[in-house]
Design brief:
Chain lengths: 244, 314
Amino acid sequence: MNMIKALFRRELRSYFATPVAYVFIVIFLLLMGTFTFYLGGFYERGQADLQPFFSFHPWLYLFLVPAIAMRLWAEERKTGSIELLMTLPITAWQAVLGKYLAAWAFTGIALMLTFPIWITVNYLGDPDNGVILAAYVGSFLMAGGFLAIGACLSAITRNQVIAFVITVVVSFGFLLSGFPMVLDLFSGWAPQAIVDGVASLSFLTHFSSISKGVIDLRDLIYFALLIAAFLYANTIVLQWKQAD
Amino acid sequence: MIKIDGLTKRYGQHTVVDQLSFDCAAGEVLGFLGPNGAGKSTTMKMVTGFVAPSSGHASVCGHDIGTDALAARRKMGYLPEGAPCYPEMTPRSFLEFIADIRGLSGEKRKQRLDEVIGRLHLEPVLSQSIDTLSKGFKRRVGLAQAILHDPEVLILDEPTDGLDPNQKHEVRQLIQSMAKDKLIVISTHILEEVEAVCSRVIIISSGKIVADDTPHNLAARSRYHNAVRLTAPDAASIGAIESAIARLSSVSTTETDRQHLTITAIAKSGGKDAEVLRQVSQLINEKGWNVGGLQLETGRLDEIFRQITGGARA
């Protein structure tokens, strides 16, 4: 536990020691605001809720979270610091978790900094704050899902651009797995059970129910399992690279 | 302390480290030598567990690096090749991070941090980010990290690469001062370093051990072992001096460098130590030559290195 804490602290600090954190947070907040007010028609709808705000989260995460995740392992490999890290007395799990949790906490900080929109909606009307809280939780979990995919894929390569592109593509697949463009890939040949299985992997479906204020245990378990699976894959990739 | 048994690493068809086996114990400073690409770094990466071997075992203080990696790594300090660090951190926060991972706490943590910072003279740069530091400081931060927990086994991959002569000297002193109760393994291709700090040398070439000896014995294999070099007074007399020396009973051949006016008298193999020196100095006295310098050679490591790693043929 102490190891994970030490790794977590080092990682989180390093975000703020470089411009990465500030650039990311500023861009994240700017895009959130732009999407919510212009594309989402926040004022025009005349409803006191944050639906236009949250509905853009999956799409913003699709590009912004891989940008955070791409450096997790690829950069360590590039600078060679991975050799230092992985010869310290820590397990692969501790390294994976420490790094992942720091990145997740960082996206959490960025997400929390969107609080002015919550203040705005409370000032303008009388929204259901329970729904808003649930949507924030869902959004945070979804960010964690994207991040776990990105962390795992970042361990494959020393090139951050490759890590970014592959993560976006895989994340896009997960995002849209409930939609025809992904399902059609399977429906031609796979049994219905598999098609249903793929459909149920969709980030959008699971996120949209949480963001409406319905916290279903199944959605929580979905994100938890997804994160755990990709982090497990991350440790496998590290071990596989060690033997390579 | 370190036991290596049949360690092998293959990348596809290419065997980088081939059935390497050796033991080494506390108190030794083992110089790991070889031409570039001989497998020095790969061997170190396998011993520290960063790279998994294709076959064979390595254990550190009785802990197998494959099955008991954490225990083995706790006993080890490791400076990887090129001394990688986290460039955005300061040396202070970097060393504090290492101290946390190494499980140092309280008074002990403070004392160890102060000690390595003092020993490696890091005070002036403690709160500067590592990527703004000179190569010498970066290397010293890497060394500080490796010795922070006062490990029993220290593995240093090219510890003095990129340092200036003063810094090299300091690092060698540091290594010598720690050598008493530890096992230190350094890889290098700087031969003077081996002579300066190592108590044992292993030379590898194409992944195999080609020599395993003390630096002294290794140098004694050189044809220059027990040779005598003298500087002639002027260019005119050099020929006469050379032919007189070549006739001495203990001398097999002579080599002349007319540019520097030096003559090297190479000893016959199996002769007594310093016999050539005795005969040459006697000759100088008899003839009354006004020689500029007279020097006994112990042997040239670089020559031996080239000879056994195949460079002499190339």
